[in-house]
């Protein structure tokens, strides 16, 4: 029996690649759980595996104290002396619990505990072994499929190849050998903990290290790599030896080295680019095979570039569905905005036209008061053309401009353009109402001006009231007549009044 149990422990430890002590500790914990469930006690229990007899003994543990407060866990010194004459305060007294009375349920419980403990120990062992090997190239065998994912055999354990880490061009068969890289190790995963990848850019780097001795010994370095699995990969390389061409070393004689990697990736295209510390020169090379005319850094803080290419090279520079420029952007770490020469020329012409085109001041808008114009100009809008291009929401963001004022501004702009770009004369009533809204004139002043206007047409004496000092009042009429017409009618009335007064003085 002793030899049988020891052999089983040794066999299990070799199979799961865990230490025998871990298996023994799991068995002892399982016996404690089973005994506690059978005896239904709150005593402190302890189990110990006997290497000589091959048995697992269970003990109840009591602490020797002078005064007992918890009989289930403590024992007095006098009682302890009866069992062990050498007992002292602070020592432990062990009492053996029979294990041959444990039934089937307790045995099943012990089995579950052992399996759980061994599984946890195995997971810890796998994590400790593989978490430092992330990015390493390994060879696996496809074992089975679980939905869209594949389960592969790594030799000691299983690994998972998720759908997102599979190449678009590849199909996999059971028993097939694959070269993959370790992407991550998930300690909390329910299934296989190791996640592998066939789509990661590091796979291409590891394959180059295997095929190119200069990369393996460090003479040539892969600085950056950007990949869209199954389509295209861009690799930036540099040489630490000026006599070694990094691109030529990676390509090999007649392309033998790079062709071997392409076959492993099942036809995926690979662009090998010389690395350059200067961003502009690096961007030109990264967009190959397209020929770049000009590169300009537009926003250094946000890493933005503008690239100009010939019209015939635009589609090649962008690539299929934007693939070439997308990979180049990943490779250099900058956002790239590609434009053709024709598109850039039109853009410059539009900018020049905008700079040289004549503008119309806001004062040309009839029906918009000076206070409103001041508010608009304070917001940076200085001409009618710029005002016409604004939305109502943008206008309402200007302090002091409300919804009604926005409508009046749009009406004034429409009248301006309907009149052929010349300031249309707005009715005095419209101007008056807008000015009143801006200046918020007192009601008393408004009523006084209305009385003077109503008295003006009744007699010549009232006509005398229309003087240059009261020209503003004369401009306000209930019928909304233009101010110029009122002024013209006011001059004859004033002259006639002066003549009547002269006649009365002579008589």
Please tell me about this protein's structure:
The structure is a single chain. The chain has 507 residues and is of the alpha/beta class. It contains 21 helices and 15 strands. It has helices spanning 2-16, 20-39, 77-83, 104-130, 201-211, 213-216, 246-251, 256-264, 279-286, 314-318, 323-332, 341-356, 370-378, 384-388, 392-396, 403-418, 428-439, 443-455, 460-464, 471-474, 483-506, and strands at 44-49, 56-65, 74-76, 92-97, 137-146, 149-153, 158-161, 177-185, 194-197, 220-228, 232-239, 269-274, 292-299, 304-309, 335-340. The strands form 4 sheets. Strands 5-6-7-9-8 form a 5-stranded mixed beta barrel. A hairpin with a 4-residue loop joins β13 and β14. α2 (20-39) packs antiparallel against α4 and α9 runs antiparallel to α11 (323-332). Mean pLDDT is 79; it is low at 423-496 and 502-507.
Write the layout of secondary structure elements.
Blueprint: H1 2-16, H2 20-39, E1 44-49, E2 56-65, E3 74-76, H3 77-83, E4 92-97, H4 104-130, E5 137-146, E6 149-153, E7 158-161, E8 177-185, E9 194-197, H5 201-211, H6 213-216, E10 220-228, E11 232-239, H7 246-251, H8 256-264, E12 269-274, H9 279-286, E13 292-299, E14 304-309, H10 314-318, H11 323-332, E15 335-340, H12 341-356, H13 370-378, H14 384-388, H15 392-396, H16 403-418, H17 428-439, H18 443-455, H19 460-464, H20 471-474, H21 483-506
Helix pairs in contact: 1-2, 2-4, 5-8, 9-11
Short description:
The protein has 507 residues and is of the alpha/beta class. The protein has helices spanning 2-16, 20-39, 77-83, 104-130, 201-211, 213-216, 246-251, 256-264, 279-286, 314-318, 323-332, 341-356, 370-378, 384-388, 392-396, 403-418, 428-439, 443-455, 460-464, 471-474, 483-506, and strands spanning 44-49, 56-65, 74-76, 92-97, 137-146, 149-153, 158-161, 177-185, 194-197, 220-228, 232-239, 269-274, 292-299, 304-309, 335-340. The chain is elongated, with a radius of gyration of 47 Å.
